[in-house]
Write a structure and sequence with these properties.
three-stranded mixed sheet; two-stranded antiparallel ribbon; alpha+beta; about 45% helix; about 200 residues
């Protein structure tokens, strides 16, 4: 999704700058006087002496009560959107595909989401595990995993991490033909209601 948002925003910004640049260029060339080409009465810039915003344009709404709240709200929304976009660029992206050695020298591509789902399903089948979320990061030739594990109230963290390493992660590494599959495991417990003893 982030890739699509980047492309749309960059395309819109490029088109806007292109149109604005052509409009200013057309006004600066003074096409009507040089070649007799009439730009029409609606065209804002008709010669090299024209400015982008006249004094009347800049001060037209200054005395209206709605003007400044609308400007401030619009700029605040724009700043928040740009901040979200900037922070989204810094986030570590999910790995889309993993290169699997097929033995013929060419290799095959495995969808990262498929490998993550299989790893999560196997990890959820371990005793004491309630829910698992897996994200693959890194490069497709050397992926790494970030595993978020929610334990059952009776789950044992040390035993769960050891079985996760020896079973689920090891099976994923072997099935993908990887030399290593480093993982960062984050554990948290599931909240439960206290039991009453009578």
């Amino acid at each position: 999704m982030l890739r699509t948002v980047n492309r749309v925003l960059l395309t819109l910004a490029g088109l806007l700058l292109l149109v604005l640049g052509l409009a200013v260029l057309a006004g600066g060339l003074d096409l009507q006087r040089r070649w007799g080409y009439d730009l029409g009465s609606a065209w804002p810039w008709k010669g090299p002496g024209d400015v982008l915003l006249t004094d009347a344009d800049r001060t037209r709404f200054r005395d209206d009560g709605w003007w400044w709240p609308v400007v401030i709200a619009g700029l605040a929304v724009l700043v928040l959107l740009l901040l979200w976009w900037f922070l989204a660029q810094l986030r570590r992206r999910r790995l889309g595909e993993v290169l699997v050695e097929s033995g013929d020298g060419e290799g095959a591509l495995l969808r990262g989401r498929a490998l993550a789902d299989v790893l999560a399903a196997e990890a959820e089948s371990l005793a004491g595990v309630d829910r698992v979320r897996v994200r693959l990061l890194g490069r497709r030739t050397r992926p790494s995993a970030r595993v978020d594990v929610r334990l059952e109230p009776h789950g044992r963290p040390a035993a769960t991490v050891e079985r996760l390493r020896a079973e689920a992660l090891e099976h994923a590494r072997i099935s993908a033909g990887l030399d290593a599959l480093p993982a960062e495991v984050r554990l948290r417990g599931r909240r439960h209601r206290a039991e009453r003893v009578t």
